């Protein structure tokens, strides 16, 4: 039993808070996930309201499939940002959603294998020397998106440098950094949300916000759903397969979250209800999101942080947050307000957020004591990073198939780890 797990919870997993406290605690989890969950659809061109819908329902599905034993919240995954943008540009958004659907099937296959054979084979397939560099690639690969949003505005289809944009982005970035470093308690867990809020205020004074869409929007509005198999007839030109390898990263991220969550709550979720069940639940939520046109989902570290601080582990609180997210997705004026957030505000926040993603990959290498003085480890990590950040791709024009850099880097890393021989001391 770890030191953290000896701490008595204020509310355990199956305990219900009183109504007023329940609402407050659920809103707290909603705030924790909100900034990052909304950021992904803004960057990829997906409706933010749809992301809130799929996030809320996906979390409820997760809680149901895990038998209400794991207090977790599911939000938008950053790992799929680049593939969604790439497929939406070269094909259309429906193709990207089909790719996410296929990636979700990998979760089901992995869950079945874990149920039958345990988790050891997966950890050997995806050791830290592979996953760490891939996470670095995810953060660095999408960093140009953040910088472009911070500096450029579009005039007649052309990107033009705008000093006001950059100053607003810098102000937003500084505010977000101060919130992340100087604040304490729950506020320290929501620097992204606070950065967006205060950055938005700066943008208002800079004259970059147009409130007319909020005034014109109705109070009640259905989210815009994109159902691939209805609004789009699949060509199955294998372009969709480009997103499948990204599941390699997100599944490993899921395992890491379950380990941390088990440590925080003091229960071994890898055994009860089992890692196979939590991976299946995560994949089911991702499949549901792809079928409605929302960004692929993943368990959220931000909400795990809230659990660690508050020691309130009730699944009813997480379920309440999911319901609030669902309600917000149908408020038209709220969705319109999100759409008025200027790109430099999101760019300023993203500079820090994407850097943190890359740094977390570096942290994994350090925490897992990956020895880069060993040539095998150095080769694997080096090739993954250069292929991923350098923009390498595998393209077969005859079958209209393109494997983007992130997916190519992930597959190459797995193959190198499987093929390169290990010495006894390794």
TrEMBL record:
Recorded GO MF terms: xanthine transmembrane transporter activity
Membrane topology: Multi-pass membrane protein
Top-rank taxon: Bacteria
TM regions (residue ranges): 20-40, 46-65, 72-90, 96-115, 122-143, 163-183, 190-209, 306-332, 344-366, 378-396, 402-420
UniProtKB keywords: Membrane, Transmembrane, Transmembrane helix, Transport
Family listed: Belongs to the nucleobase:cation symporter-2 (NCS2) (TC 2.A.40) family.
Listed NCBIfam families: ncs2 (TIGR00801)
Protein name: Uracil permease
The organism of origin for this protein: Gemella bergeri ATCC 700627
Lineage, top ranks: Bacteria, Bacillati, Bacillota, Bacilli, Bacillales
């Amino acid at each position: 039993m770890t030191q953290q797990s000896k701490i008595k919870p204020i509310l355990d997993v199956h305990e219900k808070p009183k109504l007023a406290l329940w609402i407050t605690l659920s809103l707290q989890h909603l705030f924790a996930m909100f900034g990052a969950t909304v950021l992904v659809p803004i960057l990829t061109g997906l409706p933010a309201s749809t992301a809130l819908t799929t996030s809320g329902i996906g979390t409820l599905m997760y809680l149901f499939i895990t038998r209400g034993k794991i207090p977790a919240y599911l939000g938008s995954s950053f790992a799929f940002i680049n593939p969604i943008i790439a497929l939406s540009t070269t094909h259309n958004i429906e193709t990207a959603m089909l790719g996410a659907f296929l990636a979700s099937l990998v979760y089901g296959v992995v869950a079945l294998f874990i149920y039958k054979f345990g988790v050891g084979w997966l950890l050997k397939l995806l050791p830290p020397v592979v996953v760490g560099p891939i996470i670095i690639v995810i953060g660095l690969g999408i960093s140009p998106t953040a910088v472009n949003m911070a500096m450029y505005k579009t005039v007649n289809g052309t990107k033009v440098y705008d000093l006001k944009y950059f100053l607003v982005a810098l102000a937003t970035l500084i505010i977000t950094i101060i919130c992340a470093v100087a604040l304490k308690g729950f506020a320290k867990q929501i620097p992204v949300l606070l950065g967006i809020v205060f950055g938005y205020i700066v943008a208002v004074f800079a004259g970059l916000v147009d409130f007319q869409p909020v005034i014109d929007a109705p109070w009640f509005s259905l989210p815009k759903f994109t159902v691939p198999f209805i609004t789009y007839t699949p060509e199955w030109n294998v372009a969709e397969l480009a997103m499948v390898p990204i599941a390699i990263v997100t599944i490993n991220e899921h395992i890491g979250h379950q380990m941390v969550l088990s440590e925080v709550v003091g229960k071994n979720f890898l055994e009860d209800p089992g890692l196979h069940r939590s991976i299946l639940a995560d994949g089911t939520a991702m499949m549901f999101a792809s079928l409605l046109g929302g960004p692929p989902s993943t368990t959220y570290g931000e909400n795990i942080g809230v659990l660690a601080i508050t020691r309130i582990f009730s699944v009813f609180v997480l379920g309440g947050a999911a319901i609030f997210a669902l309600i917000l997705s149908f408020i038209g004026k709220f969705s319109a307000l999100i759409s008025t957030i200027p790109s430099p505000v999101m760019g300023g926040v993203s500079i820090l957020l994407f850097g943190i993603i890359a740094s977390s990959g570096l942290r994994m290498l350090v925490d897992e004591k990956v020895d880069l003085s060993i040539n095998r480890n150095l080769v694997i990590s080096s090739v993954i990073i250069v292929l991923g950040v350098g923009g390498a791709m595998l393209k077969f024009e005859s079958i209209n198939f393109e494997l983007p850099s992130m997916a190519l880097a992930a597959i190459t890393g797995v193959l190198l780890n499987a093929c390169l021989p290990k010495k006894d001391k390794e």
